[in-house]
Protein 1
Amino acid sequence: MGGEAEAGERQLGRVLSFGIPDTALGLVMGYVEDPWDRDAISLVCRHWCRVDALSRKHVTVAMAYSTTPERLFRRFPCLESLKLKAKPRAAMFNLISDDWGGSASPWIRQLSATFHFLKKLHLRRMIVSDDDISVLVRAKAHMLVSLKLDRCSGFSTPSLALVARSCKKLETLFLEESAIAENENDEWIRELATNNSVLETLNFYLTDLRASPEYLTLLVRNCQRLKTLKISECLMPDLTGLFRTAQTLQEFAGGSFEEPDQQAVNRNYESYYFPPSLHRLGLLYMGTKEMQILFPYSAALKKLDLQFTFLNTEDHCHIVQRCPNLETLEVRDVIGDRGLQVVAQTCKKLQRLRVERGDDEHGGLEDEQGRISQVGVMAVAQGCPELTYWAIHVSDITNAALEAVGTFSRNLNDFRLVLLDREAHITELPLDNGVRALLRGCTKLRRFAFYVRPGVLTDVGLGYVGEFSKNIRYMLLGNVGESDNGILQLSRGCPSLQKLELRGCLFSEHALAMAALQLKSLRYLWVQGYRASPTGADLMAMVRPFWNIEFIAPNQDGPCPDFKKQILAYYSLAGRRTDCPPSVTPLYPAF
Amino acid sequence: MAAAEQQQQAANKAAGGSRFAVTCGLLRQYMKEQGGNGALRLAPAVAMGLVPGADAAEGTEERKAVLELFPQQAGTLKDEQQRKRKEPADERAPLTIFYGGKMVVFDDFPAEKAEELMQLAGSSNAAAPGQNALAQPSLTDMPIARKASLKRFLEKRKNRLTAGDPYPAAANESSKPAVKDEGAPWLSVNSALSLS
């Protein structure tokens, strides 16, 4: 590297900076936060790339194996916030074996040693050991403002106590849905309560962690800034003191109610006290007898999570009609078409709606009316024009309903539909034209999931998906298409598609490989259920530099049935994974 | 424009219909082949089995018997075929297998075993969906996956609703639901059940 070359580079940098002085460029960059804009800026010239690199505060690494911590530090040495994701999304559906990988160790070691400005760390679907946490705490305790261990596993409560004791600046501790071993009860909450006074968010919702009302109340008393508290199961009658203390609390989720056979059957929840600032609520195991707990506060509610309750269709109607200000509603499909009609009439400000799949396997337990069809979908499309996120599990659906979504739900940027398999017949097949109308209308869509059954979306429909999904970056398709031609049609379009997940489709390995080559923006492909060749050799057609191809066969005890085999392919600057368990075979690079 | 769309719709329907028709056609052909073979092979078997004992049996009854006996007869015939195949069992010959990039040579391989091996290879071939466009991962093979969080909730919910006293160990616990006493890994859905 001679000085001449450096001088030349400077010259080039100045020319391409269009005469903007460095100070000005730095100031302008300070206002550019969108990572897509940042990416574009960094491609202008080396100088701009360097300015971006030094001023970038947050990076999300969507696939932890796509780069190395060393490389990330070389490019962005001043990062303040890092989000890392490892296991495929399918892990949330128990489709990825526990030994798949995704250890946080190499990352935590590097970022503890370097990344001198790191304040926020978010790990999602990763394995985090107690050692990792102690390394992190030793290096970053004085800095850490936010620690999110989001659907992670591998650590235990003593590590939480260590974090609580050491990280005095911690404002956010997020552990939702993590698998945490409980080695010393809820001491960690007491540590947090006695060592921290700046905590704003504590979330251990959907974990099996124990939490005593005494420690929680102590925490709320000492952390006066606490706005969000999402806990595991804890009886509501024991939390009255907590709510009287928590005068600034805005969000609460968790809790629990007595089982029907316990003595306090006749407990009255009508006059339960919630602080006036509370606008977001989710109560575990709430039943018909307890739902009155919501009524005095329902008009002020902006968010309501009823996914983990015992309510029937009728109860949902009663509650929702009292909540005209809801912006977020999360329920199971037990809400039924009737419940959704009430949502459509009442919740004019609704922005996010999630309708999860209820108990349809064991029969008898779930409310019979709890089914969703084109009726409910049409009602919501017409009644809730502000929707930006809409995920729904339906039992039936028609072209007209999908067209209604395309016509009325113009603000959607994320739409996900799953057609359940409990009804033998659905009203209309195929739904190609409905999907076309939906995609044509919802031009802001960035994410799109369509999980149906064979015959619902034909090859023609897949062609429409390719043609009318200009801005879609993430797509999940299940049981779609009739032949290889379908995926090939799709891959001719979808110019922005970065992440594609396919399940239960009949595409051959060769067609999948061709599609991967043809999709210009694709960086991540996950497939389960496809026409596997005996050796997997046809996948090699998509071999290209930096494109890691891994074959996953979860059953190690015997031969893996075809429908369990998975393909994961992604761009990586890190080369081949070095920590593959026996169930993961790297096809490329082979060495 | 509208007309074009309608046409397209019609075309789609036609495409859907034709696909169904193709499937039906294949199924019919398959049934005919199976049925045809069965009938042909059945005729002598039925004659041997029924005619000597029941001279007076009417045609219709006979046909009924044929229908009822069909699967059984087919089974015995298959056995017979297999028995026939096994007759030259004493023969031995060298055998070479190429599989998965490896070659294996046996000097004295019994013909009977070779036959079994061929059947095995043939059956796995037929099962491999590689060449068959109709072989699709079926809905029963690939049920819609349920979110882990909901799955755990529904299990707990079921326990609460069905069992009268699902958490016997919790009797002496004051306020904490017994499920948590397990201390079991978070993922074990049946934590409540494994308590006892």
Protein 2
Amino acid sequence: MSAATMTAPLAKPGADEGRIGIRANLRHIGALVRRNALQIKQDPESMFDALLMPVIFILLFVYVFGGAIAGKGNQQEYVQYLVPGMMAMMGMNIAMAVGTGVNEDFRKGVMDRFRTMPIARSSVLIAKIVVEIGRMLIATAILLGMGFLLGLEIRGGILEFLASIVLSTVFGAALMWIFILLGLSVKTPQAVQGMAMLVLMPLQFGSSIFAPTQSMPGWLEGFTKVNPLSNLADAARALINGHGAVAHPALITLGWAVAITAVTMPLAVAKFRNKT
Amino acid sequence: MTRQTITTKGGNAVEVRGLVKHFGEVKAVDGVDLDVREGTVLGVLGPNGAGKTTLVRCLSTLLVPDAGRAVVAGFDVVRQPRALRRTIGLTGQYASVDEKLSGWENLYMIGRLLDLSRKDARKRADEMLERFSLTEAAKRPAAKYSGGMRRRLDLAASMIGRPAVLYLDEPTTGLDPRTRNEVWEEVQRMVREGATVLLTTQYMEEAEQLADELTVIDRGRVIAEGRVDELKAKVGGRTLQIRPTDPGELDRMTGVIAEAGLDGIAGATADHDGGVVNVPIISDEQLTAVVAVLGRQGFALAGISTHLPSLDEVFLAITGQKSSEADGPESESDEQYAEVSA
């Protein structure tokens, strides 16, 4: 090729027009939320974790382990103990699904289309989170419904009860960023699930969700004190049962939520933006 | 919405200079220059792993090039990606639609993402389904579509925003001939309506059908460029194959063609194994002339066909060597496509 044609082409002068305004951004997120909701409608099995998990877990723990943990005849008290704790667990289990969802999306061509369109790339992720929060609330409602069937009583005020739902939802939403980051980092949805389980299991069972921590060895009890799931479970328990310290575990939980979001959200968005 | 106007100098909708994209050791795109004139189709012809997909991904802001410059519809792909995204459409090797959503929902969603009002997005979705003959399948999830329907939906999705420049990355790879023709017709129609198209393909036939000009690339570099007829002349046009009803007449037929003194026809060769006579031709007139001569001589013919040179023959003619079948990033895309179409 001759030197004359090697001159660099001239682009229009000026900055990169087409910055996306907040209203357009909300409209894009709305369209993508609709997409995610329609996906669920098309594939109802994907709701099994939100619908069945709470039912199975609550029955399993109340009837199989409950007697051994709380003593025979203390079922009522164990329900009061377990259900608020499980609110903490629900958030984590649902959040895990975001990671596999994001990973699957990326293996399909549709993500290429989104990324060649004039929309903020973060809106794809935000829409996903909005839908997952919806799923989380459904799971929590089912969990509480089961709890009421088994005799759960709201012993604190109704505001405290609602506060426990808000707290567990906020924490679950923060966790989603971790799983989005994981979903963008590993190759297959199966790998997301495998790695998530590695984190999930010790956090869930090394906590006060299912049983009081006093009987655990000292090192484990120490772990449960910093474990955000323990703190969330304790806070929700105090809010619903109307006794026990709320401020301390709630603050630790919120601190974790803020820290997790502050670290993993920018990383996830950057990863999403630069993914090839 | 009207089609966006292009104000690049010299009427080029796409200008690429010295574009480079390496993946570690793999030099996927290694200094590519090309131009696409406004309102025309440029075919980028090359084997698997030549760097075609990487080139398209650079030009559609999915990849940031390591070096070089590219201006599309007046916007720099690196410095003005947001503005650029408003003027381009991309249809990849595998369908970039949401398979769980119906055809209509896919198009409606894209309309909304392109800032159409609800009403306009609905109207445009109906319009595009109608145009791409998908109205009947509008409510079915895209996962249940055939390969050709999915590709048509994909094209429809790319056309919603009336892009000034359209990238088609191997739009017919893996499609059967009938579906392939449907896609070709649709592309030709888009061009008639004024779109500028950059088309990548592995097939000489597709390039001949759709492209005004051709850029042949191999191992990330441009190895030939020019108008389709120029390149075809370079590689020797087509081969006319004539099958006589009686294979015993092969030699006599070859002689008759050679002695007829037809304009521009150098000779004919008999292929006894295949039972055909091969005649290299450059124009349709020559085809008619050859058949007319045989008709006058009273030969009974069982079949005639013409064959374009294969990609390998093109490469052989241009470079004197076989095309590389190196493993590049594109082989991965191929697998993905195979997965989707399976």
